[in-house]
Structure formats: C-alpha cells, structure tokens
Amino acid sequence: MAAADGLLGIVDRVGEVGVGVLIALENLFPPIPSEVILPFAGFRAERGELDLTLAWVAATVGALVGALVLYAVGAWVGSERLHELSGKRWFVVLSQRDYERGERFFERHGGKIVLLGRCVPLVRSVVSIPAGVARMPLARFCAYTVAGSALWNALFIGAGYQLGQNYHRVEAWVSPIAYAVVVTLVFWVVWLTARKLRRLRATRASA
Fold first, then answer.
1. pLDDT tens digits, residue range 97-111?
2. All residues at 6 or more sequence positions from 75 whose CB lies less than 8 Å from its CB, including other chains
3. Any idea what the Cα angle at residue 60 is, between residues 58 and 65, rounded to 5°?
C-alpha cells in the first residue's frame, strides 16, 4: 500500500505527465498497478486537479512508449535466435515445434492478439515482445497498441471519475482477474516445460 501511495504521489506532483510516465513504466514492470493509477487520475480529474482528456492522452502515449521498448527487445532477440534457443536441451520452456506453431498462430492473428492483449492484465505488458520477435510492421503495431490502450485507459480513468473518492474499488474488481491470468500463465508455462522434459527423456531412452 505504501508503494502504491508513493506512485500516486507522483501523479499529484507531476500531474498528467506523471500519469503517462507511470503507465510507460507499468508496461516494463507489470507490478506497477495501472488499475490503481488510472482510476486515481480519474478521481483527481473529477475534483478538477487534472484535465480528464490530457490524463487519458498521457496514459495512452505512455502505454505506447512502454510497448515500443518491449517491441524493440523482441526485435533484438529475433525469430531466428529464439527458434535456435528453443532447440537447446536446457531451454525447457518451449520446443522448436511449439515455437513454430506459435509463430504461425501469431502470423495469422497477431493484430487481434496485440489489440485484445492490451486489455488483459499482465498480458498487456508482455504481448509487445512476440510482436517484436515477429517483426510486425511498426505502423500496424502502433495502431493496434494505441487502440487497445486508449480503450483500457478510458475505461479505468472513466471509472475513477465516476466513483470519485471510491476509485480504489476498481482495483478490488480487477484483482481477481489479474490473479486468474497469472495462475493461467504459470500453469501454461509449467505444462509446456513438463511436455518438453518428457520429450527429452523419450529421446534419450530411444537413443
């Protein structure tokens, strides 16, 4: 709670620019809670201490900046390098077959994944990396990112504006969804890891 209070203090001190900076950082460090920052910005706007439209624009620009950083990380890693890594025995999260299947899926549905992923806790941060790995055209990536982020930011800032001093209720509503997403992703990674380890053991046994 103290950490969240410190983040909200940045909004009080820097205003709309602080909202944008925090949302950019939230993309890079998902534990920074946008579901707290955005409703708080809406609450401050309702009290006349922030401009509602500028807060929304700043949050959307911040989301794009953070997403572009992660896109650059994915582009730096690159498809060839990640495909090569997935073939290593010690790289137990993905097999090359899994990676190739995921790559084909992203080629077909990458735009929808980026757009909808921007509206899912935690996923909204990491979805930029596979877009960079796949070298999705930058203009297309930016368009989907801005559209999804603008919707997410409008919903949460608007909720804070409507709830006023009860803006903190938004976090209570979103937290179960965020926990469910985290648990789902953890189980998915564990399942992929266990499957690759079984395949490695089968390969060794047949050899």
1. 777 887 888 888 888
2. 132, 133, 135
3. 90
pTM of the complete model beyond 0.90: no
Total tally of structural domains belonging to the chain: 1
Percent of the chain predicted with pLDDT > 70: 85
**Structural contact between residues 31 and 63, judged by C-beta atoms closer than 8 angstroms:** no
Listed ranges 83-97, 115-129, 164-178, 181-195; the one with the highest mean pLDDT? 115-129
Q: How far apart, in whole angstroms, are the C-alpha atoms of residue 131 and residue 110?
A: 7
Domain that holds residue 184: 2-206
> Which residues contact residue 163 at a Cβ distance below 8 angstroms, ignoring those fewer than 6 apart?
39, 42, 43, 169, 170
Q: In whole angstroms, how far apart are CA 156 and each of 78, 125, 132, 160?
A: 34, 17, 27, 6
Question: 137's torsion region: left (phi>0), alpha (psi -120 to 50) or beta?
Answer: beta
